[in-house]
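Hi,

Apologies if this is the wrong queue. I'm a grad student, and the batch job for Glucose-1-phosphate adenylyltransferase from Albidovulum aquaemixtae produced an output file that my downstream script rejects. I'm not sure whether the problem is my script or the file. Here is the sequence I used:
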Amino acid sequence: MAGPSQRLVARSMAFVLAGGRGSRLKELTDKRAKPAVYFGGKSRIIDFALSNALNSGIRKMAIATQYKAHSLIRHCQRGWNFFRAERNEYLDILPASQRVDENQWYLGTADAVFQNVDIVDSYNVDHVIILAGDHIYKMDYEVMLRQHVESGADVTVGCLTVPRAEASAFGVMAIDKDDRITSFLEKPADPPGTPDDPDVSLASMGIYVFNWGFLRDLLNKDAADPNSSHDFGGDLIPDIVKNGKAMAHRFVDSCVRNGSDAPAYWRDVGTVDAYWKANIDLTSFTPDLDLWDHGWPIWTYSESVPPAKFIHDEAERRGSAISSLVSGGCIISGTEVRESLLFTQVHTNSYASLVRAVVLPYVVVERSARLRNVVIDRGVHIPRGLVVGEDPEEDAKWFRVTEGGVTLITQQMLDRRAAAQ
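Support response: The file is valid. Your script probably expects a header line. Output copied below for reference.
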């Protein structure tokens, strides 16, 4: 017999906001939206929110897309096409299709839901979980749903516990002793602490649980307000804090960990430095993010490729990978790979070396290239003898070098370099 929590997820849907470009990722989002950016060797960023929903027991999902959505839509059609309508399961992709006004794209996060009210209505659900499609984390949404219902809240906001000194970068919740939100402050200079620890603050994760009937009325009201920016964090949540009941849900209560003493893992990989570090961290001996967890798998589209192959065994020409993740279809031919993450179908050649490299799919590295602290975009052809990561001034002439010393390499950058030489 199904328990109450199972009935909750059965009458709930996940609405994933995946329309953002993610401009701080620079050229990595020139051709794809941030949720479609590759992560972890074989996944895309959006797979984490979708997998959390699926593993939580939610079988009704919608994904709102807008910016350069083709690769995201194609990925979801290929990797998330196992939902069966006859079992009352759905995954709908909702591009900004000017349903309300032929001149109107999605104006904000709340407007993205408002423009699809009729589709959400058709799901016949009691609760809607609004999710951002661009963060890396593992979370059981069922726990948050249960808190929302038991507290009688109008909205429950997922919150990270962050050091107060770092909280100015977030939308911060001030709460009372019962975790009721008393104010919502966008990037405050002096963030409030929590009643139980004045040295930490609660920062919004961009995850919200609503009763659908309540949210539906609120969206209609917001859409009619010409002064609204039609945004959950900017308009709807502050309004509920002021006029209704908003509760904070702490991520530590529902995060899925790889051990009882493991940290609550959540990452915004919104800059090239953060993206590079989160991927390279996976090569550590015991990474904080457990991708090997069969109990909470990260589902994705998997190409049919052969196993990785390592060839040549000579002193200066040995195909090897140490403290690295190497995906299927890779051929490491006489290349030394260290502390690196290689996505599907990367081919490297003799006498080359990769150190702390994040290499996206279908990259070819020619002989004698030396690459250190790099992110290489999909399909790039690294020319013979290219050296990156040893002379920042030279690298900056042709490539994007970040404040953290990571070099982003795209094919367009290499073509400009070749044309100039």
